[in-house]
Design brief:
With 249 residues, the protein is mainly alpha-helical. It is built from eleven helices and two strands. The radius of gyration is 21 Å and the shape is elongated.
Amino acid sequence: MPTARTPLPRSSSSSAPDEVADTLLHRILHGAYGDGGGRLPSERELQVELRTGRGSVRAALGRLADWGMLEVRHGSGAVLQKRRTWRLDVLTAVLRHALRAETPAVALRLAGDVLELRRAIMIAMLGLAAGRVSPGALGGARAAATAAWEARSTPRDFVEKEIELVRALFETAEIWPALWLFNSQAALYRELAVLAITHVPIPSDYTDRYHRLCDAIEAGNAEASRRIAGELMLPFDATLTTMLARATE
């Protein structure tokens, strides 16, 4: 835990509220304020300790409150909430922290849970998409798959194109809850996908696999849609899990 009056580390890509939120998240995850019910320092105390402005402290506290981590009580400060009440929005920040910190076992377990959840939701929702679209309706998704393949030499560009591919699938089928959930975790997906793709080649039949998925969805074949979706995701998930497991050795 940072000592009193320790200035926040700054980077060109992080804002002051980001740094404050990251510092508070680090403290919370390491038990600095207990396991729920603990009171954080006042805004003024955090300003002085972290050498930052009141607006940055308020923005950071507001962000953690939006994630369900804190209850901000006007006039009496911020109170830490039990982990069981936190929201999914906190996931990206917690996993990023685990990957950055020297806690690879935590990162491995959390990443494994994330991948299992993602795979289960994606497979179920792509099965649901079958029968919701007409033949030929997934032209946008097919084009996105081709664009992703053409961008495969640059991992970040490839991942951005694949994100658009997933969005096109859910948007065309009008499965808005799945799309919004995917959007909420897009930042996390970017980090994990780039990490995996940097270390494993993209399958030579990548475009063909996605075309087969689109064919199954347009044909209304939910079983085939789920099977193909699983085949697309499992190699990626297995590669990433193996990489993180090695980090714990």
